[in-house]
Structures are given as structure tokens and as C-alpha cells.
Amino acid sequence: MSDVGLVLIVILVLVIIWRGPKTLPKIGQMLGRGVRAARDEARSIREDSDIPPDPPDTTGP
Questions:
Q1: DSSP assignment string, 3-59
Q2: 20 φ, ψ to 5°?
Q3: Domain chopping of the chain, boundaries
């Protein structure tokens, strides 16, 4: 496991201890919204520039 993975696991354990397990879904929602906003912003920047868009993901669920 990489150092980054170990750090993320330690942070997750600390958050569970500090905030309690009931707040984890809310934290996940906030992270998801942040990732979605970043993707949308990257997409709008890509549309404004001459960089071609990424091909659609065909791996499926």
C-alpha cells in the first residue's frame, strides 16, 4: 500500500473517532458534490478551449 493510501486510512479513522459514524454519509455527499463540481468546471474549461473532449467511458457498470 502506498503512503497516500495509509494516510487516507488514518484520516478516515480519525474522522470516525472525532465525528462519529453517523456523519460519514454527509461527508461522502460533500466529497461527491466537490468532485462533481470539479468535473463540471473541467468540462466547461475544456469546451472553451481547443482541447478535444475525452472519449466516453465504455467499460460499463
A1: HHHHHHHHHHHHHHHHH-GGGHHHHHHHHHHHHHHHHHHHHHHHHHSSPPPPPPP-S
A2: 95, 155
A3: 15-47
- pLDDT of 2-59, one tens digit each? 788 889 889 888 888 888 878 878 888 988 999 999 999 988 887 777 666 677 777 7
Closest CA to 42 of 26, 31, 53, 58: 53
Report the C-alpha gap between 20 and 56 in whole angstroms: 38
Amino acid 50 reads D
